């Protein structure tokens, strides 16, 4: 077991995230990740699917700098990183606007600046008119939009998503998938997205990465060929085409094989 830590380092390239042979062994001896190779370039939206406990969240925590890999190199060339969790993690006593302003407030921005940033982000996620609502007055989807807006105030170059829509119903999830795609093409961040849903991964992404069971490693990577443009991020009807079903089938098969 290696005990050295490999900190996230920074260089200037079009690759925003470059993991090379990353291993993560926790102090109790649990080997969560082994030999992980993964890159996320500017303009890419990469989804990661893998069995429960294979180290997906650990991967994101290393990417964000919250955790250090115990071996290998985890290089991140993004000074502004957004992070959205499965839980919206809103402060219940603060309004939508005050929650969205939080990161700019912690960053020491002036009141006018953070108000302007928050209002723009609230508009981007379609919550204009709900600025004064408290989290308990919002639906699950609206809470997640608020969480997205809070991270958008950072103008992230790299956006990390830890299964953000997993707790939402199918219709809300599909709607938020489309919202996220629109934000991706408009705001031009790169994305690293964890999900348990293979069809969500294929629909949202430019690339889908399949991980094995723990210790997690990347077993397959699939380029997603469906077009994505500023005017039409991705045609929702793509989900009903044989090509989409075929790719979902291939990813699912790789997931099953990697799980054995
Ligand atoms: N701080 C820690 N100390 C020890 N073991 C840990 C720690 N954090 C995570 N683990 C273990 O590492 C493995 C990977 O955990 P992780 O949460 O990254 O998996 P995951 O793929 O995100 O799981 P899920 O899909 O169920 O959310 C698990 O076996 C987990 O129990």
TrEMBL record:
Residues 17-238 form the ABC transporter domain. SUPFAM superfamilies: P-loop containing nucleoside triphosphate hydrolases. GO terms for molecular function: ATP binding; ATP hydrolysis activity. InterPro entries: AAA+_ATPase, ABC_transporter-like_ATP-bd, ABC_transporter_ATP-bind, P-loop_NTPase. Keywords: ATP-binding, Nucleotide-binding, Transport. This is Phosphonates import ATP-binding protein PhnC. It comes from Luteimicrobium xylanilyticum.
